[in-house]
Structure prediction request, 355 residues.
Amino acid sequence: MLANFIDANREAILSRARARVATRTSPTPSEEELVNGIPVFLSQLGDALRLARSTTQIDHVKLTASAERHGADLFRLGLSTGHVVQDYGDVCQVVTEIAVEQNMPISSEDFRLLNLCVDDAIAGAVTEYARQRERVLVTQGTARLGVLAHELRNLLSTATLAFESIKGGRVSAGGSTGMVLDRSLTGLRDLIDRSLADVRLDAGIEQVERISVAALIEEVEIGAALQAEARGLRFTAPLPPRDMWVNGDRQILVAALSNLVHNACKFTRKEGAITLSTEVTADRVRLSIEDECGGLPPGAVERLFHPFVQRGKDLTGVGLGLSICLKAAQASGGTIAVRDLPGKGCVFTLELPRG
Prediction:
């Protein structure tokens, strides 16, 4: 029986299947997939074969139920539907190869049974995976909408109160209340810009163009300089040569860089300095924002780019900015990283391919 053959040759099948999957370029295999995913796939295949009542009849109900449990496991492992389909195919090919090498006879009925099991298993696993993912997306979407609405309401309420005070003549527009109004309106603009960028990224709506790095920095610098001045900070952004280019969506990249600068202004100590610098290699452009926040708390680097995680004691904002920056970098074929400068600050670097 093929299921018994899989059990007897489990380690050999796993070793060869991992080697095969590791060479795949699309979808790119993850470490979790190689270490834990492949064994789960193989166990599920064995279960599927054992659920066959005979070589001519398969218990589709039980097989689908088993596959659905497997689909939930795949989702928890963080694998994609592409991994599901590809890995089932790779594991089945390895099983066949080893059976042939050991001169184990595989009849046409065995192949038919194997294909039927795999077909049901993939369908059940992918269906349940999609259901689990949709549930999470709905939950996350509801949470994100609620947090966004709450933050918009807070900023708008603050701006309205400040404006009413100025309009009533009780305070001067150039005083502290005017600064509160200015910060609230700036916060509203930044929040909307980040939200629009997030929507474009999630929807895959990108307008890729060749962008001058100098022009990109100039666009970010206008708002950054005003924000830094309002907080009593020094902001510098030396411009690179005009003939340096990157490819990407201008709105998304501006939103990502603006968010990094906004965070730097938010956490840098009073009278501190923020620098936006550019470094160029043969094929990459690195845009680095260095601040004087005093350094990051232990364990913060690993969690910073997760949605709804906020960086310090100042909990204003929705906690989505850095996760949007990460998505923006990946959508542009680049990366984003943070380097801690203990006792001084930190450096966020957005690295993009040269255009």
The beta strands are 208-212, 234-236, 245-249, 273-280, 284-290, 335-341, 345-353. Residues 307-319 have pLDDT under 50 and may be disordered.
